Prior knowledge:
- 5% of the residues lie in helices and 23% in strands.
- It has 293 residues and is mainly beta.
- Among the domains are: 5-36, no CATH class; 89-136 and 275-287, no CATH class; 170-272, no CATH class.
- The longest helix has 10 residues, at 21-30.
Amino acid sequence: MGLPVTVQIGTFPQGYCFTGLQQYFNDGIALCAWTVAGNFDGVIIGPNVPAPNYQGSLWIKTDPYGNPIGNFLYANGNWIWPHPIAPGDGERKIFTGPIDGSPAGLWSKDGGDGTNPNTNPPTATTGSFWTVDSTFAFAIPMGAGTNPVAYDGATSGTQLISGQSLGEERHVLTMDEMWHQHGIGKYGLANGGVGFAQLALETGGGAVSAVPGNIGVGWSSGGSQPLGTAGPTSSVGGLGGTSFQTDIPSPANAVLNPVHSADNYAVSSHQNLPPVVGVNFIMRTARAMIVGG
């Protein structure tokens, strides 16, 4: 924030003559005057609060070693200066320090007084300048927009708008997500030199005790059976068998039950969280002014 300085330029007297450039410069400066609008009486530089008779001055506060700390003007009973980020600003910052009232904590950051803003609401000149934005608690920020890639036949990619939450920490697979086939057994000519001998077991679906399910492709002596064809559960030891079924049916779009009673195993979620580092996202409080002393 600059001071409103007005420059009054003087005029050289009639017949003025100089003997050197330095004299010309000095004489020109001497003819000019600089004034500051308002009740500005000068500049006070130092670590101590200026005396009352200097309350119309600009105080450049320093530490005891002369290093500058900040600028302050006297108003409403305090030496104050606006915080560079206004209250309510949409800016967010990452903070990795302690969230407490210690000198290195969030509530003391930028000259805050160390009080908890959740229990001591800040005013224009008191309290903490910063607080934690709970919107980001256990959440990963991502740029708002639409993914240009559309998955699984969708007409458009996933859209994320500002403030929207998506995703999950852990995930339980649905039947559609587990739908697949495993080919096992021998590959080659079957009996009579016709077709191929291959056993394919199809997995998935809800449990139905003692009821055969479907296969993908079964043993065949004259070719392969169509996908999903049901057949007997016998004669699977040699190439002469026709097909083999699992004991798990495969209805489309089935949701896996929490407990698979027939096979006696529990269904659990899998980890869906990438490697992360815990931080706090902080935002400005209502406090507006830094107080110099």
